[in-house]
Each structure stands twice: as structure tokens, then as C-alpha cells.
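Case study 2.
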Amino acid sequence: MAQLSILVYKGVPVDFSQHRHTALHTSWHETEDWFHVVGAHPFFQFQKDPQNPISESPIARIPVCAIPESVSKATFYLACMGTPVRNGSGDRDWNCQNWVGEALTELVKIGCVTEQDRVLAIGKMVEVILDAEMDVSVLLHGGRERLIDLG
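Prediction:
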């Protein structure tokens, strides 16, 4: 059975929330694919990779759902490829994290993901992304006691 997950990678060059990379990951029996947006504004591009495109392993794998047998690889791919990549002047805050949420919305439309699974997965993704905020205080205060408890 094919599986869909969200992968979250540690931020580069520093692990701040806005630098954490996200991707959709599928395992279709013997094959795997990574679907994500790469680059920076205004040069974002959709990319599909047959192996992990990041040199490091993800820090989180968030299961979304089992992909229904009624959804073919081609249909899945077209839904992801058809998710808009936003490079306009009003999209400066848009990134790969937004793309994952928008791609999951497209996958709801084709019957691959339920609305409930989409909401739960995005909530977990946001939690993992926001965990990076804790690193900010360590960088700012050199590992000393934090002034603000982010937990």
C-alpha cells in the first residue's frame, strides 16, 4: 500500500523556523518520491526527486495517510505539479512550507487525502517547524537560561 508523509528538515544555514525545509514523500511499493519546492523567492521551482534531495535525513516524518488505490501515481504527480509555485511580488513570505499545505489541499480535491488528515498533518508539521524557535534563544543567549519559556 502506498503511503504519504510530510518530511521536515533542519533549517540551513541556521535552524530557524523559516529555514526549515518541508517536502511530501511517497512510498509506492518499491519506489519512493520526494515532492517539494526548491530555491528562494522569486526563483522557487517545483521538483520531484527519486531519492532524498537533502544531504541530511529529515528531523521529522509525519504520516499523512495511506494513498487510496483509486489514486494513481500519475494523478498524484499531476496534483502536486499543478500546485502553484508563488514567485510574485506579493509572495515574499511564501516558501516550501506553504507549498506543502497547498499541495495537500490539491490532494484533498482528488480524493487522495481527507480534510481531517490534511488538518492533522499540517498541525503536526507546524509544531515541528515551530520547535526551531527554541534554538533562537540558545543562539541569542549562548546557551544560558532562557528569558522566555517557549515550551
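The radius of gyration is 16 Å.
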